[in-house]
Amino acid sequence: MKKSVSEKSGHTCSQAPFSGRASRASQRDGDGRRRPGARGLTFTEVLISVVIISITVTPVFLLFSTSRRTTMAARDVSRATSFAGSYITAIAGAANVRLREVAKTEDLSMDGLMALDKLGVEKVHKGFRRFLELKKIAPDGESGSKAYHARVTVEWTAASGKTNSYSMERLLNAKD
Amino acid sequence: MRKTSRSKGFILPGALLLIIVVLLLAMTRLYFSREQLNQVNRISDYERSYQAAAGGIDVSKKALDDAVKFINDGDPATFPKTKKAPEHLKYIVGGLLDDDGGLRQGAEFELDTPLLEYIRREFREVGFINAYVTLSGGKPIYLESRNLEVFSAAAGAAVPDGACQRADGREANYVLSLNVKSKVGDSKCSVTAFIELRNVNVTPSVIGKFVLFAKKKNSLKINVLTDSTNPANFKVTPVLVKNQGSASEQMPPVKLRDLLDAQGWIFMGGDAQWSFNATYGGGGKDFQDAPLRTDLYHYAIDDGTLSTSPSLNYYAAMKGIHSELFDAPGGDSLKLHPDAGARLNSALNLFGSASCVTPTVVIGRVTRSFALLQGFYNSSVRKYAPLPYQTEASFNSASWPGNMSSSTVDAIKKHFSNDFKKYALRMCDIISEDYNSANLLLADFGKAGEKTFLIDPDTVSVVFPDFPDLSRMKVNSMPAKFYKAIVGPAYTLLDDRGRILFNGDDFSRFYEPGFILHKVGYQYKNFQDFSKKSVDAEKKAMRVSGIIKIGEGLETDQPIKIAPGGGGIIIVDGDIVFRRGVYCPASEPLTFVSLSGNISVATAEPVKAALIALSGRVSLPSSFNIDGLLAAREFFLEDGQQRCSRALTYNRIFDPTDFKNYSRNYKLMVREDWQNYVE
């Protein structure tokens, strides 16, 4: 049989368990002392309250967590876009750079006029890696225009441990 | 105080409300963070789309630049442009040019290069990419000029300074736009690049017709050579003016006229006379003045007492003047000639040389003097007896030059009835005639021409009523005669289609740079600045491809090499000194203009350009080779060393009267770098 905490005083409680603060307050006199015959919360009441609170608060936490991950993902994609865009734009705009074929190579390994400091491009943030790939193409044969197919790939590991990547491509006029 | 029943159970709704609020906050945050992610994804797609479009712009610009270079190429083999364009440029050239080779105003077409196709095929995320070209503008330059008075436009009204040149409506400013649209995901990007083009013709508009243009009288010392039959004594080489087409033999008058119409002409300014003494060239055909009938012409003696002798004839021949005619032992033909000035010969051969005769039209009061050797020829003993030049006093004396016996002198006097006037017709002499009369020696008059040694220019139109006149020059509104002096005051220059190019007064007052200046596209501080921007990395050569102005003098210590399509006009505000050669394809007109300074050629290397200094002097070294034209207020010629090369050769690419040629000399001048903007 369920008993209220006031059983110690010998009273049983037959009322509904959800009497609320007002009910409990009414069980006290003006000096805050429990009045004789006032009832407390039953264990069941507390348990149910905890369950209900758990059911309602958990999704809230999940929502906050998901949105945080989404925000971080957006931040990472934004950074990756910026890292890729600045690098490929710098290469395209460097008039004195003689392009050459490059297999997928990390930006820090590039040397000569394609080195980051020569191009005026900042390094990527910690956790990111940036790669350049240049492929010479002459789709119109030897008589036509020659160009390079540039692909910049930025890779990073998300907080979840998953590895992500973002690629950007552009055609560059051959300067040779 | 007793609580009311309504205040009971407030904690539960409150808690629920709090939870709902927190839940809403969390959902809102999630919504915004997802939106942020979507936005970032759209931005990253847009960035991809932009990079694809920007790359498309770059490669398309390259294709358009290549098309402009091809359009600018003056090589005749590249005309008509729309048909001769390389396959990968053909549709671009066809889109920009009409059938006449003019720019197609308002042209609009889609550009579809293999590189754009590559983007469509190989770029994984790109949904589409398209490029469009638009050519707008086209307002003629002369309408934009603030100095319309230098352009006489269609009306052709005469204006001061003799600068009444016709404006060319095809010379105009354009804007070439290139728009590339691309799409990645849902993100579209449109990048537009545009560039200003100025279409100008780089033919010197009037000067281009002249291989040699001397504004000022006595601006050139002409007769400075001491000539001789002994090559060793012929120490100063004359300048050979080669006017392009050669005439190795006589030709029908119409054909000769057509040749002369197409030649580079010569203008010798001023009202006073220019006198050229024909060069004998040390006996070498490569330096001898021409044309001269140096072969002996025999004709019957139909007057005087010696006419009865069947083996006796008159003979006549034309020779360049040399010192032995005057003072060598036995050379008494012109011993008594009083004109000391005739003993020096011309440092310029205006018609090339005897080995390569290039006739032309000389405008101005210009004469040519040559030695006319005449006398008797006895065919039975094959001996010649020249009749020496004499004054009337010496004719009447008993002692004649040439150690003739008194009986011989008497016999000759008797033959001419003791009449000096009759003798003077048959004696050796120095003959001066209008320089253009030399052209008659190249005309084939048929049987009629065989009957006379020299054709009198004044009787040509009487004896040969159909004899043609120049078709590209009028003097005082009448067609100019190419065998007579051509002297103003009013000149009309026409092209081969009859279009008037110039209609004005004396060419001596003519100042072409005033006209050209209004067509300038670029201005540079100095030549080095221009060189940096104009050197074609592929060809290691320079491109002018239009009309530019340099703000200070120009002195070259390196050869100037011009790439195909790189011809143009370089206007220099100062002196120009060439210490090394100028190398330009024959199909490219390259002109250097000194606005108010002098031009000095200080190299024997070829200078393949037109040099114009109408306010100054052109100085030429002892040895030079100019392939183009020369125009100056005055000239200074260093003495040529023996048998050195001194040649001024006309390049017909400068000829404004040849419509086909003129049409090839339009250049699309790229006025600024491409400007990009992103929509």
Give a description of the structure.
- Chain A contains 3 helices and 4 strands, in the order ααβαβββ.
- In chain A, about 35% of the residues lie in helices and about 20% in strands.
- With about 180 residues, chain A is of the alpha+beta class.
- Chain A has a 4-stranded antiparallel beta sheet, with helices on one face.
- Chain A has one domain.
- Chain A has helices spanning about 20-25, 45-95, 115-120, and strands at about 100-105, 130-135, 145-155, 165-175.
- Residues about 1-25 of chain A have low confidence and may be disordered.
- With about 675 residues, chain B is an alpha/beta fold.
- Chain B has 15 helices and 40 strands.
- Chain B has a 16-stranded parallel beta sheet that branches. In chain B, strands 1, 2, 3, 4, 39 and 40 form a 6-stranded antiparallel beta sheet that branches. In chain B, strands 9, 10, 11, 17, 18 and 19 form a 6-stranded mixed beta sheet that branches.
- In chain B, strand 3 (about 170-185) and strand 4 form a beta hairpin.
- In chain B, helix 1 (about 10-70) crosses helix 3 (about 85-95).
- Chain B starts with 10 loop residues before the first helix and ends with a strand.
- Classes of the chains: A alpha+beta (about 180), B alpha/beta (about 675).
- Chains A and B meet through helix 1, helix 2, strand 3 and strand 4 of A and helix 1 and helix 4 of B.
Based on secondary structure, the structural category of chain A is alpha+beta
Largest interface: A-B, 51 and 54 residues
The proportion of residues in beta strands of chain B is 25-35%
Spans of chain A of at least 5 consecutive residues whose pLDDT stays below 50 are 1-25
Helical content band of chain B: 10-25%
**Any idea what the shape of chain A is?**
rod-shaped
Form type of chain B: elongated
Number of helices of chain B: 15
Largest sheet of chain A: 4 strands, antiparallel
